[in-house]
Amino acid sequence: MLFSRSDLDRLNGILSEAARREIMPRFRKLAAGEVREKAAPGDLVTEADEAAERFIFAELERAFPGALLVGEEAATRDPAVLGRLAEADLAFVIDPIDGTLNYASDLPLFAVMAAAIVRGESAAAAIHDPILDDSALALRGEGAWLESADGQARDLRVGRPVALAQMNGMASWQYFPEPLRSALPARFPAFASVASLRCCGQEYRLAASGRCDFLLYGGLNPWDHAPGVLLFSEAGGHARMLDGSPYGPGRPSTGLLCASDQESWQQIRSALIG
Q: Model pTM greater than 0.70?
């Protein structure tokens, strides 16, 4: 099964409409009872997350009948759905609001994300910014681009390699297991800066546009990383698990590093992991 440019346009249109209908009208207007904590402290879900996921699911079911739908909130309720990703002819992984903590904190830095998975491999990606109303899009083998609401587009390309001490990176180090979790921050001074936007979608957009030199992630939920890894790779970047193996959505794994090229990836890994 192929996933075409017109299919990607339909997917992106659904995400954009969910942002307009369900997410932006609630932004900075959530009542206390509309923000709840999930299993882990600081892991939030809002009424906007759930409403957007319901809308996206309904529209995808109409547009792509029979596709497996895996959303962050649905998977929280039924984790077993993740085990079906590898075998589905067509599946979608959806993060209705990536950066929920930012959203619930009234910070305009969040995204709506989805990837189309064809027989276990990412085929298309869309990361929509509801504030700017533009989308970073990618099709496997056809590149990555940024598309505005009026249809104007420009290609995305990762930055050129630079020396380690000049690199600016994003790292979600807190999701690594110990003892690496505690050791990583002490190694960040090897770089010019290491930060976190608390939103994978915006970090992947930043890196795919050449404005960030590397990304480091511990936990790898597919709705967070299947869209971003494809976007970054199609923009010319080198994304691998820390053991050097390719990333695969839904495969149990920990530790992902994205860099502008393979040589930079090796240098960054050595500085961070040894």
A: yes
